[in-house]
Predict the structure.
Amino acid sequence: MEKNMEREDIIKKLESDLSEIKTKNDLLQVKSMYLGKNGIVTSLSAKMKEIPNEEKKEYGKFLNEIKNEVEEKINLLLNSITERELNEKLLSEKIDITLPGRKIKTGSLHPMTRVTEEFEDLFVSMGYTVYSGPEVESDENCFQKLNIPKGHPARDSQDTFYLKDEFERFLLRSQTSTAQARAMEENKEKGPIRIVCPGKVYRRDEDATHSHQFMQIEGLVIDKNVSMADLKGTLELFCKKILGEKTKVRFRPSFFPFTEPSVEVDVTCFKCNGNGCSLCKQTGWIEVLGAGMVHPNVLEMGGYDSKVYQGFAFGTGIDRFAMFKYAIPDIRTIYGNDIRFLQEFDRKDVE
């Protein structure tokens, strides 16, 4: 009878204490007060040594019952508080799925990168190899091995950046044609070559359509029985693939020291389809690149027998094609590092 009364008193006190609980922390304090090291239920266990041996079994049963009942009531309230706090958190953090989503900012390929990769993919599909050359070049590779000796007028038109204290020795290349000299020199077997070399070049020039730094791509083919017909077929295919199948190509005689014969290549204006507009200055044509058959002197300086091998070369400004393709009016915009400009190219081009 005494144990039952003691048990009832403990349970009533526990229920009274639990009725005032609001948070988990409060509940943990109550739990410690009953089941902790010096708790009410724990202290009953300490009395076991005072109980006669014949009564210890019954007393142990009493301890287990009261301990289980206390734990059950505490855990029941703990589950209730946990569920309540979770529901409150879900209500406070709910998301209105009817609101429009926020646009995720993504990176974008620069238009110059897009056009360069498009050029490379096309020429690789035609059997060309992408060749890289240094931007700091020797005067010999940039001019002399391209049939442009010292004092030649063509040097004036390129207005080159020579390195300090290295005048007439090293310079920032003014054309990717230097790839011709390097590729021929590196080809020890003096066999066929078919390369394209995209890269930066530098000249003392800057306005809306010119920059002191710009991008060119140079192409070179050397083999036996190469003719002007091969050059024309290659450039017609190139222009049609890049600017559209309806593009017409026109070749005009010209002069370059490293090619003979040389041609300027025009295409029908993609804005007016050759009818004449402000972009093409009412002519219907736009000049896009220069080309020609590799000069025999260039072949010989590269170690090739010009009586056995022939070749053709062509070069164009990647910037110019980017301006045409994306209707960019000022070349300086391309190199302006303005994030707003790049945001216009944050999607894949429509095929």
Remarks:
- The first strand starts at residue 129 and ends at 130.
